[in-house]
From TrEMBL:
Catalyzed reactions: indole-3-pyruvate + NADPH + O2 + H(+) = (indol-3-yl)acetate + CO2 + NADP(+) + H2O
Single GO MF annotation: indole-3-pyruvate monooxygenase activity
Cofactor(s) needed for function: FAD
Gene name as annotated: LOC18613468
Family according to the record: Belongs to the FMO family.
Protein name: Flavin-containing monooxygenase
EC number: 1.-.-.-
Phylogenetic lineage: Eukaryota, Viridiplantae, Streptophyta, Embryophyta, Tracheophyta
Keyword tags: Auxin biosynthesis, FAD, Flavoprotein, Monooxygenase, NADP, Oxidoreductase
GO biological process, one term: auxin biosynthetic process
Keyword Flavoprotein part of the UniProt annotation: yes
Coiled-coil residue spans: none
Length: 378
């Protein structure tokens, strides 16, 4: 039996919840299909304990519901989850859980989207029909671990960042963190704070900025071109952190805000990791060449033994596996083909939300644009 709704939303993360809230605000019926057993599963089940939102709360609020006045400028994981709990309750959002979308295609005859999702409880495939389809499965849908020669010979624990909670269990261990983005840097800090002998692989150049620098940059972007803001950010970073190459870190040639928009590469928000690197408590290493048992071989030929490897190597999207017939909106990597600010709207009632590489602020704007557009078409 096929269930019918005006809008089908795939994904119950903050992007999907924001979209549902905006649709509910306009009294537009919708349904959310979520493969996990809860909403915001990345936050509730797969985020490390010390995580805080990296941007000031004014850039992270979802539509139609402010954060409590008591919340600090930089919100903790627990506070954000509590906010989402209240958000779902307030807007009476009821996702269908444990529904893994296997196919979504536009039916020319009925001018509707037909979505097939497997009920992970019963094993049955359920069908849904909607005039509109919103892809809200996120930038961080499937954890990615790179293939490395000899990884299968490593005798210790191998984790993805989504499996890491805190550094308590790793005290006195030799731990290698692979990846020098925000998750990698913050997990390395947590490990070092808990007494682990911590190393981090910095394969690519990164911008290191303080939260105050980023806040200033986001305010300035409203008034002056991003290349001028980028130049200021690099100058401030050099003043604050000096020559990073002596610690094994290089700065990119392109500016931090340009890289975020063009490649989805966020600057590193320094929360104390830099001082640990500077003091030698965290060792920075180049790319891994191979692994031989407990010994990890690096690009310069040097080897080091480790007890645990934690991969902070990001995520891949699987949209291209289940979304069929779309040649316009999303590329093979599940990211929008159209440029910002026209990235959120496809053809035949297809939309995407939270894929503009602008964090929660971008997801909120997408959700409001989508709801307003659908309202205008009904």
């Amino acid at each position: 039996m096929m269930q019918e709704e005006t809008v089908i939303i795939v994904g119950a993360g903050p992007s999907g919840l924001a979209t549902a809230a905006c649709l509910n605000f306009h009294s537009i019926p919708c349904i959310i299909l979520e493969r996990e057993d809860c909403f915001a599963s990345l936050w509730k089940k797969y985020a490390y304990d010390r995580l805080h939102l990296h941007l000031d709360k004014q850039f992270c609020v979802l539509p139609h519901m402010p954060f409590p006045d008591s919340y600090p400028s930089y919100i903790s994981k627990e506070q954000f989850v509590s906010y989402l709990d209240n958000y779902v309750s307030h807007f009476k959002i009821s996702p269908l859980y444990r529904r893994c979308v296997e196919l979504a295609k536009f039916d020319e005859a009925s001018k509707n989207w037909i979505v097939k999702a497997r009920n992970l409880g019963s094993g049955e495939v359920e069908e849904f029909k909607g005039r509109f389809l919103a892809v809200a499965s996120g930038e961080t849908s499937n954890p990615y671990t790179p293939e490395i020669e000899g990884l299968n010979t490593f005798p210790g624990d191998v984790l993805h960042s989504t499996q890491f909670r805190d550094g308590k269990a790793f005290s006195d261990q030799n731990v290698l963190v692979v990846g020098s983005g925000n998750s990698g840097m913050e997990i390395a800090l947590d490990l070092a704070n808990h007494g682990a002998k911590t190393s981090i692989v910095a394969r690519s150049p990164v911008h290191i900025l303080s939260k105050e620098m980023v806040y200033l940059g986001l305010i300035l972007l409203k008034y002056i071109p991003h290349n001028m803001v980028d130049s200021l950010m690099v100058m401030l970073s050099k003043l604050a952190y000096g020559d990073l190459t002596k610690y094994g870190i290089t700065r990119p040639k392109e500016g931090p805000f340009f890289m975020k928009v063009a490649y989805g590469k966020y600057p590193v928000f320094d929360v104390g990791t830099y001082n640990k690197i500077k003091s030698g408590e965290i060792q920075v290493l180049p790319a891994i060449s191979s692994i031989r048992g407990s010994e990890v071989v690096f690009g310069h030929g040097v080897t080091h033994p480790f007890d645990t490897i934690i991969f902070c190597t990001g995520f891949k999207r699987s949209t291209n596996v289940w979304l069929k017939g779309d040649e316009y909106l999303l590329n093979d990597d599940g990211l929008p083909k159209p440029s910002f600010p026209n990235h959120w709207k496809g053809k035949n009632g297809l939309y995407c939300v939270g894929l503009s590489r602008r964090g929660l602020y971008g997801a909120s704007a997408d959700a409001q644009n989508i709801a307003n557009d659908i309202k205008s078409l009904l």
